[in-house]
Recover the amino acids of this structure.
């Protein structure tokens, strides 16, 4: 597994290389890097908050925050750019992912030459949450309660339908949180 991760990352790095003669802008040009939230572990990680449009179809409209992390390249004179990672999901937080990749054996040449960037995608982790207007206890689990009889099934179905109706019809962020074509609730 370790070798396949390194092969995939090597391919991603090669694909991310800028064309000859083109200098890549750095994330540090626009972000203020600092301490990561306490629950984000990984030696050497720095974090920043990036404002992005809530709806990319309306780039001048309401914004939300995406929290990103950086494992800065160790050899600034060898700098080639950034390597953006996504830990997968759906719904997976990824601020610690650059440190996880380093610990899994990311090649020294990558660690020297690239800032490895992680993120908590829209609505996940430390980024602006998508709650669909639900209370924390309503978000606690996607596993339904054990139904002992038909009445329990009917009661749970009514409860879930009520949450879906209320949250998906009133939440402003849900339609822009999903990946097209799903688009939210």
């Amino acid at each position: 597994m370790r070798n396949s991760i390194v092969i995939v990352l090597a391919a991603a790095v090669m694909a991310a290389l800028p064309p000859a003669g083109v200098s890549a802008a750095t994330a540090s040009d626009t972000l203020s890097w600092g301490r990561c939230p306490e629950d984000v572990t990984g030696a050497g990680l720095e974090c920043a908050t990036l404002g992005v449009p809530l709806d990319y179809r309306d780039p001048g409209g309401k914004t939300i925050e995406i929290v990103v992390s950086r494992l800065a390249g160790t050899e600034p004179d060898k700098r080639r750019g950034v390597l953006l990672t996504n830990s997968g999901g759906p719904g997976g937080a990824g601020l610690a992912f650059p440190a996880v990749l380093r610990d899994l054996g990311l090649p020294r040449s990558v660690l020297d030459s690239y800032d490895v960037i992680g993120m908590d995608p829209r609505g996940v982790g430390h980024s602006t949450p998508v709650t669909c207007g639900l209370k924390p206890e309503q978000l606690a689990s996607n596993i339904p309660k054990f139904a002992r009889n038909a009445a329990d099934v009917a009661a749970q179905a009514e409860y879930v339908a009520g949450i879906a109706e209320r949250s998906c019809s009133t939440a402003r962020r849900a339609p822009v949180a999903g990946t097209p074509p799903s688009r939210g609730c």
In short: Residues 1-28, 179-185 have pLDDT under 50 and may be disordered. Helices lie at 2-16, 97-104, 108-113, 136-139, 150-170.
